[in-house]
Amino acid sequence: MTRRVSRPAPHRDQVLGLMLDAQAELIAAFEECDGAAGFRAQDWTRPGGGGGHARVLEAGAVFERAGVNVSAVEGGRVPEAIREAHGLDADSGFFATGLSTVLHPRNPWAPSFHANFRYFEVDGDRTWWFGGGADMTPCYGFEEDARHLHRTLKECCDTYDRAFYADAKKACDDYFHLPHRGEARGVGGIFFDHLHPEGPDGWDRGFGLVRRGLDALLPAYLPIVRRRMDTPYGERERRWQLHRRGRYVEFNLVYDRGTQFGLQTRGNTEAILMSLPPMTAWSFDLRPEPDSPEARLSDFLRPRDWLALESLEPVETRR
User: In 3-state terms, what secondary structure has residue 282?
Assistant: First the structure.
């Protein structure tokens, strides 16, 4: 009797399965936190190959907009945004899959949050790499919130390499910066790209980091939202929130490589622009009152070592 030997799924299928499982878990947790609204589903196909699964919550009790999108696209020519960043041949075939989540709470005291984890293959799987990260954008600064985020992300990074967090944090601070404003978008987090660990277990190590990064998103962010989502606010705080959201929009439309990649690959435009807040405002030369919570935000957003003065107690990871 001949026994059929089971073979592991192709790398791209393993990553896509991970992204879809994480999408379902994140959606369930965000719906439970909001308590009033659910995610609307929109699946889409790309003419050049592949497609995606957009899931968006709008007008909720806690989240004014929340999105958790998964895409998997392929084609015969590497998009310009990826080709330039990684020095690739334009005529190479490519495959890319990833999960992106963005949350814009209704309450101005609760911060916005963004995370993206992705995987690329070029020329089959002869060239591959992982990327990802997570960052937080508050309108009002709370050190305990920034420390909680960074502590959770550091513990995730330490399982891969204890030197990784410092590099990923600096990369995040450098990336989520608005050169035309000379300011940071938020309190940072972690960011990495073109991760290709060497050795026979290199792919598995990269995959493991992405898996643990996805697992860290809920414990990194939801405790902060629950802490702030019922804080009283008025028109002043709302106006400031809309003003600060303008910075978020400027970054995503001018500098964000993920937005550029999505548009260049002719992905679903609605899913790509899901990351933008539903309402924002630009006020000409707005200057907050001196020594107000609004005025103190610019100093709060300076890149810093948020964990320098904190003992690294274990982070609760149960959900």
Answer: coil
Collapsing DSSP to helix, strand or coil, 165 comes out as: helix
Q: pLDDT tens digit string along 46-101? A: 887 899 999 999 999 999 999 999 999 988 877 776 777 666 766 778 899 999 99
Q: In whole angstroms, what is the distance from residue 44 CA to residue 42 CA?
A: 6
d(CA 204, CA 218): 23
Spatial separation of the C-alpha atoms in residues 49 and 77, rounded to whole Å: 11
Structure tokens at 13: 């299928």
- DSSP letter for 289, please: P
- What letter does residue 140 receive in the DSSP assignment? S
Task: Round to whole Å and give the CA distance between 58 and 161.
Answer: 38
Helix/strand/coil for 263: helix
Active site residues: 114
End-to-end, the C-alpha distance of the chain in Å comes to 47
**Angle at which helices 202-228 and 11-34 cross, to 10°:** 10
Instruction: Give the residue from 99, 95, 94, 93 showing the smallest Cα distance to 118.
Output: 99
Question: What would the two tokens of residue 316 be?
Answer: 């609760």
pTM above 0.70, yes or no: yes
d(CA 276, CA 256): 12
Rounded to the nearest 10 degrees, the angle between the axes of helix 143-158 and helix 164-175 is: 130
Residues whose CB is less than 8 angstroms from the CB of residue 185 and which lie 6 or more positions away in sequence, other chains included: 135, 137, 176, 177, 178, 247, 248, 251, 301
Give the DSSP letter of residue 10: P
Query: Is 192 in contact with 168 (CB distance < 8 Å)?
Result: yes
Angle (deg, nearest 10), helices 202-228 and 143-158: 160
The CA-based angle 89-93-96, given to 5 degrees, is 105
